[in-house]
C-alpha cells in the first residue's frame, strides 16, 4: 500500500505554493497598474503553468492514496468473509457430527430396549419352566445375536445405559445395567455397571439393596478401582440408616486398605463428623 506523503513534503509543497501564490498576486497587481511588459506576461503564464503542474501532481498523489485505501479495505473485507465462511463450515460440520451421534445413540437405545423386552420374555418363560433358576447361559444369545438387526457390543449396551442414567431415566438405566451384568459379568466395564446399578438403587431409596449391590463389587471384582468408592458409599448409606457401628467399620477398612485413594480422604472427613 502506498503511504501518505511525509509531513516534510507537505510542508515544503505548501510553502512553495504560498510563495508562488504571492508571486502571482504581485505580478497581477503589477499588470493591473498598467506597468506590465511582455516579460511580465510570460512570467505570469509560466507561474500559472507551474501551479497547474503542482496541482495535478497533488491530485495524482491523493488519487493513489484513495486507491490504496480502497484496496486495503477490500482485502480486509475479503479476509473477514473467508473467516466467516470457515467458521460457518466448522459449525455446520460439528452439528452434523452431533446429529450423527444422536442418531446412533437413538438406534442403540431402541435395540437395547427390544433386547430387554426379549430378555424379560425369556425370564418369564424360564420362571414358569424352571422355578429353581433361569440359567443365564441360555439368555446370552438374545443380546447381540446374529438374528438381530445388527449385533450390539457390550460397550454399546453400557453406553446406552449411561445415556439413560444421565437423562434421569433411572428405571430404564437400571434394567440396562442388570441386562449388561447378566450377559457380560466378566467384562472390564462390569464393575462400573455394578457400581451405577447400586447407585440407582440408593436413589430409589432401596438402601438395603443398594448396600448389598455395592458390597458385590468387593466380592466379584476385588481388584477393581471401584472398590474404594464402593466402600465409601456403603459407609455413607449406613450413616443414613443411623447404623454408625457398621459405617465406622467400612470407612476404617477403606482408610486402612486404600490409604492413598481419594475415597479414603472423604472417609476420614465422614468419620470425624460421625464420631
Count of structural domains: 2
Q: Tell me about the largest β-sheet.
A: none
- Give the overall form: elongated
CATH topology of the largest domain: Serine Threonine Protein Phosphatase 5, Tetratricopeptide repeat
Backbone CA Rg: 44 Å
Spatial gap, N to C terminus = 79 Å
The CATH C-level name of the largest domain is Mainly Alpha
β-strand percent reads: under 5%
Helix content: over 70%
* Low-confidence parts: 4-16, 127-150
Instruction: Give the helix tally.
Output: 9
What's the count of strands?
0
State the order of secondary-structure elements, H for helix, E for strand. Answer: HHHHHHHHH
Based on secondary structure, the structural category is: mainly alpha
The CATH superfamily name of the largest domain is Tetratricopeptide repeat domain
The CATH architecture of the largest domain is: Alpha Horseshoe
Mean pLDDT: 77
Lay out the secondary structure:
Blueprint: H1 7-32, H2 38-129, H3 154-167, H4 170-183, H5 190-203, H6 207-220, H7 226-240, H8 244-257, H9 262-274
Helix pairs in contact: 1-2, 2-3, 2-4, 3-4, 4-5, 5-6, 6-7, 7-8, 7-9, 8-9
Could you list some keywords that capture this structure?
275 residues, mainly alpha, Serine Threonine Protein Phosphatase 5, Tetratricopeptide repeat, 2 domains, 9 helices
Brief rundown of the structure:
The protein is 79% helix and 0% strand.
Amino acid at each position: 500500500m502506498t503511504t501518505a506523503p511525509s509531513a516534510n513534503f507537505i510542508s515544503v509543497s505548501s510553502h512553495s505554493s504560498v510563495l508562488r501564490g504571492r508571486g502571482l498576486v504581485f505580478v497581477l497587481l503589477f499588470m493591473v497598474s498598467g506597468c506590465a511588459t511582455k516579460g511580465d506576461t510570460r512570467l505570469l503564464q509560466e507561474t500559472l503553468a507551474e501551479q497547474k503542474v503542482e496541482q495535478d501532481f497533488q491530485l495524482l498523489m491523493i488519487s493513489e492514496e484513495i486507491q490504496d485505501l480502497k484496496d486495503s479495505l477490500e482485502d480486509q473485507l475479503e479476509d473477514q468473509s473467508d473467516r466467516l465462511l470457515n467458521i460457518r463450515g466448522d459449525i455446520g460440520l460439528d452439528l452434523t457430527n452431533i446429529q450423527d451421534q444422536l442418531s446412533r445413540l437413538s438406534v442403540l437405545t431402541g435395540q437395547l430396549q427390544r433386547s430387554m423386552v426379549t430378555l424379560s420374555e425369556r425370564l418369564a418363560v424360564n420362571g414358569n419352566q424352571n422355578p429353581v433358576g433361569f440359567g443365564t447361559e441360555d439368555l446370552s444369545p438374545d443380546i447381540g445375536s446374529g438374528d438381530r438387526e445388527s449385533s450390539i457390543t457390550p460397550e454399546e449396551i453400557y453406553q446406552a445405559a449411561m445415556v439413560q442414567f444421565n437423562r434421569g431415566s433411572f428405571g430404564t438405566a437400571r434394567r440396562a445395567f442388570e441386562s449388561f451384568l447378566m450377559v457380560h459379568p466378566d467384562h472390564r466395564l462390569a464393575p462400573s455397571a455394578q457400581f451405577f446399578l447400586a447407585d440407582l438403587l440408593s436413589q430409589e431409596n432401596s438402601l438395603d439393596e443398594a448396600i448389598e449391590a455395592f458390597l458385590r463389587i468387593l466380592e466379584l471384582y476385588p481388584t477393581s478401582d471401584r472398590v474404594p468408592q464402593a466402600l465409601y458409599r456403603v459407609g455413607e448409606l449406613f450413616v443414613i440408616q443411623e447404623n454408625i457401628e457398621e459405617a465406622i467399620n467400612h470407612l476404617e477398612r477403606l482408610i486402612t486398605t486404600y490409604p492413598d485413594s481419594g475415597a479414603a480422604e472423604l472417609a476420614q472427613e465422614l468419620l470425624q463428623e460421625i464420631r
